[in-house]
Amino acid sequence: MDKRCAAALIMLACCAPAAAASLQTYEIAGDAIVAPLGATQGDPAKGRAIIVDRQKGLCLLCHSGPFPEQRFQGDIAPSLAGAGSRLSEGQLRLRMVDSTRINQDSVMPSYYRIDHLSRVAPAQRDKPILEAQDIENVVAFLLTLRDQNSPQPSPKEAR
Amino acid sequence: MSRVRAVIVLVCASAASLAHAEVALDQRKSGADFMSAATRAMQDDDTANPAMLSTLDGESLWTEKAGDAQKSCGDCHGPAPQSMKGVAARYPAYNVARKAPLDLSGQVNACRTDQQKAEAFKPESAQLLALSAYIGLQSRGMPVSPPDDARLAPSRAQGEALWSQRIGQLNFSCAQCHDDNWGKRLGSALIPQAHPNAYPIYRLDWQGMGSLQRRFRNCMSGVRAQAYPYGAQEFIDLEVFLSHRARGMPVETPGVRP
Question: In angstroms, what CA-CA distances link B203 with B199, B207, B210, B214?
Fold first, then answer.
């Protein structure tokens, strides 16, 4: 984990105009990325559109959730319903950016990572699955998925 | 010495594979078990199975003289129902002349070039699929029987390593879908266990016949990985590993898939 982080930093530091430099830098604190990746506030409506888009977000390949108009939701992953009650904004952001930082064996793709991947198809090489602003939009939408029965994130988790 | 090295490779590969749960032998299910009743019925009824047309083409190609040698497959092998019985069930096999494992279509093309003195069939060509399906049909119902051949061990170990390697922008390994999540729903598709025992198949989605390698390539582009080219050693290695993983399961060729 630390090695990967260091490698990313080295890449960012020395190969300035390379594709790696097009990713925003971010800081991981515990299990969260507290600061937003972009300057623009996330737009929940755009986030929802990304989640249901099977070419772009791909989320419903694995997850189900409160998307009654969507047929064929996956059952590889937990339902997204109530995600905003279980996880803080920063926790959701890290989960989206690089879920393998939370669980190394996670099958959830790292949506904002381009290092330590192999045989990426030429069309997608050196590109993250989602752009920084897309991540913010998705996080903003996930925060609206509140579940009355789940406890609110504690201040400690929320950091 | 090289035997020892092969054993070490195998031991390492199985240690690495502990990360994913291998499908237990008695838990194995054919891809056909994940299909709708209608698609299953289509496979089981020779008059409805669209892949049977390809085997008929294969049957006539079997006796067609070709190449500078002007010989047919049948001129060397005799009638396929006898000479090819059980052959597909034990492929890929080690080829002494090439010092490498060959899959069934690779063997067909080796006969084309070396015996018939003809041009090799193109990957995924109707003829190559037809001959493979026809030869495969002669093993239908017989158990997948990978040869107990030490010369295949490095290929099998390499295949297992490829199986467990995360690839593509979506960063998936074959094992994460087919060992760890089979039976679950990936969008609209039920994830099968990825047994190679029905190939070549007629796939409704393709509206045509296709090989195991075409299926591999679909899965690879699904995770946004750069697929290996047809005939790549990596695909042979994967098939050697998968046929070991499917040992004892009945051959279904020619299969139908959704």
Answer: 10, 6, 7, 11
Identify the residue whose tokens are 């090289």: B2
| Min Cα–Cα distance to chain B from A61, Å | 4
Contacts of A54 in chain B (CB under 8 A): 187
How far is it, in rounded angstroms, from Cα B20 to Cα B185?
Answer: 18
Q: What are the 10-residue block averages of pLDDT along chain A, 159 residues in total?
A: 40 39 88 91 97 96 95 95 97 97 94 96 97 97 84 45
Q: Which domains can be identified in chain B, with CATH numbers?
A: 3-45+148-257 (1.10.760.10), 51-137 (1.10.760.10)
DSSP states along B189-248: EEP-----TT-SEEETTTTEEE-HHHHHHHHHHHTTB-PPPTT-HHHHHHHHHHHHHTTT
The residues pairing with B95 across neighbouring beta strands, listed in sequence order, are B100
Do the bridges between strand B93-95 and strand B100-102 make them parallel or antiparallel, or are there none, so unpaired? antiparallel
This prediction has a pTM of 0.88
8 Å CB contact between A8 and A105: no
pLDDT of residue A44: 98
- Which position has the token pair 């390809």? B54
* Closest-CA residue to B237 (of B132, B125, B178, B153): B153
**CA A145 – CA A85 distance, rounded (Å):** 7
Mind listing the pLDDT tens digit for each residue in B54-82? 999 999 999 999 999 999 999 999 999 99
Tally the C-alpha atoms within 13 A of residue A131's C-alpha that lie toward its C-beta: 8
**Ranges in chain B, pLDDT < 70:** 1-20
Q: Give the separation between CA B36 and CA B58, rounded to whole angstroms.
A: 28
The pLDDT > 70 percentage for chain B reads 92
CA pair distance A153, A125, nearest whole angstrom: 36
Q: Which residues of B touch A (CB under 8 A)?
A: 19, 165-172, 176, 180-181, 184-188, 220-221, 224-227
Q: Which two tokens stand for residue B105?
A: 């279509």
Closest-CA distance of chain A to residue B187, Å: 4
